[in-house]
Specification:
This protein is an alpha+beta fold. The protein is built from twelve helices and 19 strands. Strand 3, helix 3 and strand 4 form a beta-alpha-beta unit.
Length: about 425
C-alpha cells in the first residue's frame, strides 16, 4: 500500500492551473461521437474517467473496460445502444460490477435498446447490441443520478421520434441536467425544458464543431477548502481557467465558501471567457452551516472535512446518491472523520450532521480512500490543521485530478512517500 504523509506550508500564496472539467469533457466526447464530427474537443481532461472514454471511442474494441468510471459506464451504455450494427461488452472494476445500472437499462429498453446483463441482474457487465431506436415519451424518476438522465438526453437527437423525458417526483442534481442540455445546444441540438418536469429533445441531428473545454470547478473546491483551513489572513490563491457564470453544477462552491469566509474575485466576468479567480479571507464566517447538496452532491466530502476542522457545526441534506458512488461515501466519511477526532452522524440515508461532538483522534493508520478519488482530494487539505496527516492509496486522485499531488508540492506542501 502506498501512503503519503503531508506537511502544510506556513503560508499559502500560490497560482495553480486547474485541470479541465471532467463533466464537460465526458459530455463533449459523447456528443462529438454522436455528431460524427472530425475535430476532437480541445483541452480535454487527462483524468482516468475521460481517458477510458477516449480509448473506447478511438479503438472501438468488442470488450470495453471503463474501470472505475461511473460516468463512462452510464454515458457509454446509452451511446453504444444507438450504434447500429455494433456489439460490445461493457465492463469495469469489481466495485463497478456492484454499482446499480438497472434504472438506465430499463429506460433504454423502453426505447427499444438491446441490452443483456452478462453477470448479475441489474449490474454491469452489459452486452449491448446497437440499433436504431424509435424514441418518444419516457418517464423516469427525478431522484436518480443525473448521469442516467444525461445519458438518455444526449442520445435524444439521434432517435427517430426524438425524446420527451418526463421526470417524476423530486428532481436532484438539476444543474448537471442543465449542463447537458446547454452542451447539446452548443452542438446544434434542439433540447429544452417544456415545463418544470419535462424535457423535449427534437430529432434534430448534432453538428460537429470545434469546442474548447473550460477548467474544473470541482477541482477548485479543494483549493477553496485549503484557503478556509489556512489561519494566515494574508494567504492568497489564484485559480486559472475558471469561468464566471459557468454551467458546471459545482461552481456553486464559490457561494457556499463565501459563507465560510472565502471571497472570490474574478479578473474578468466576460461571458464564455476563462479567467483567473483570486481567493482571499473575508473575515466573516457563519456559526453553523445548513445546506442541501442535492444539486451538487460531489461537494459534500469537501464541506464535511472543512466545516468540522473549522469548528463549524453543520447539517447537510440531499446526499442520497452518496451511497452508490465509488464507495458508500456517507459511511466512509463517518469512519475517517473519527480518525481525526470528529463524530459525524447520518440520518435518512441522505443527511450528515455534526454538532461539535469529538472523540479521541487516531491518525496512525492514515485516511483510507476506498478507491474513491474524492476521499483523497477532500481530506488532503486537512493537513493545514492536522499535523502528520497520512493518506492511503493516494493514487486514486488520477480518476479526476491526476496532477493534484504535484500541484500541492508546488504550493509548498511537503508530500512524503512513506
Amino acid at each position: 500500500m502506498t501512503q503519503y504523509q503531508l506537511t502544510a506550508p506556513g503560508q499559502l500564496r500560490h497560482r495553480v492551473t486547474l485541470p479541465a472539467s471532467k463533466s464537460i469533457s465526458n459530455r463533449a466526447l459523447i456528443i462529438h461521437a454522436l455528431s460524427g464530427g472530425q475535430v476532437i474537443p480541445e483541452n480535454l481532461s487527462d483524468c482516468d474517467d475521460t481517458e477510458v472514454i477516449i480509448r473506447a471511442l478511438r479503438e472501438k474494441p468488442h470488450d470495453i473496460d471503463i474501470k472505475a468510471a461511473g460516468t463512462a459506464m452510464r454515458f457509454m451504455t446509452a451511446l453504444l445502444s444507438v450504434k447500429e450494427g455494433k456489439e460490445h461488452l461493457l465492463t469495469g472494476t469489481e466495485r463497478m460490477k456492484h454499482r446499480p445500472i438497472e434504472v438506465l437499462v430499463d429506460a433504454l429498453r423502453v426505447l427499444g435498446a438491446d441490452i443483456t446483463y452478462a453477470g448479475e441482474e441489474g449490474y454491469p457487465p452489459l452486452l449491448i447490441r446497437g440499433r436504431a431506436l424509435e424514441g418518444g415519451l419516457l418517464e423516469v424518476s427525478g431522484n436518480i443520478s443525473s448521469q442516467y438522465i444525461s445519458a438518455l438526453l444526449m442520445i435524444g437527437p439521434t432517435l427517430k421520434k426524438g425524446l420527451t423525458l418526463r421526470l417524476t417526483g423530486n428532481i436532484i442534481s438539476r444543474p448537471y441536467i442543465d449542463l447537458t442540455l446547454w452542451m447539446m445546444r452548443e452542438f446544434g441540438a434542439d433540447a429544452e425544458w417544456s415545463d418544470f418536469e419535462t424535457i423535449v429533445v427534437n430529432p434534430v441531428p448534432y453538428q460537429g464543431r470545434p469546442y474548447h473545454i473550460e477548467n474544473d470547478w470541482s477541482a477548485a473546491s479543494y483549493w477553496y477548502e485549503m484557503m478556509a483551513l489556512s489561519k494566515n489572513e494574508e494567504d492568497e490563491i489564484q485559480l486559472e481557467g475558471l469561468m464566471d457564470g459557468s454551467k458546471q453544477g459545482d461552481s456553486s462552491v464559490r457561494y457556499i465558501f463565501s459563507l465560510l469566509g472565502i471571497k472570490s474575485t474574478f479578473a474578468t466576468t466576460q461571458p464564455g471567457v476563462p479567467t483567473t479567480v483570486t481567493l482571499r479571507h473575508s473575515g466573516r464566517c457563519v456559526p453553523r452551516l445548513e445546506y442541501d447538496f442535492k444539486n451538487a452532491p460531489d461537494l459534500a466530502q469537501t464541506f464535511v472535512v472543512c466545516c468540522a476542522l473549522m469548528g463549524v457545526p453543520f447539517h447537510f441534506r440531499g446526499l442520497s446518491t452518496l451511497k452508490i458512488k465509488e464507495t458508500d461515501r456517507i459511511e466512509a466519511l463517518k469512519k475517517e472523520m473519527r480518525k481525526l477526532g470528529y463524530v459525524i452522524h447520518d440520518a435518512n440515508n441522505s443527511e450528515l450532521l455534526w454538532n461539535g461532538e469529538r472523540c479521541e483522534p487516531n491518525m496512525d493508520a492514515g485516511i483510507d480512500t476506498y478507491e474513491d478519488h474524492r476521499m483523497a482530494l477532500a481530506f488532503a487539505p486537512a493537513a493545514l490543521r492536522m499535523e502528520g496527516l497520512r493518506i492511503n492509496n493516494p493514487q486514486v486522485v488520477t480518476k479526476s485530478y491526476p496532477h493534484y499531488w504535484e500541484d500541492l508540492r508546488e504550493a509548498q506542501f511537503i508530500v512524503h512517500n512513506l
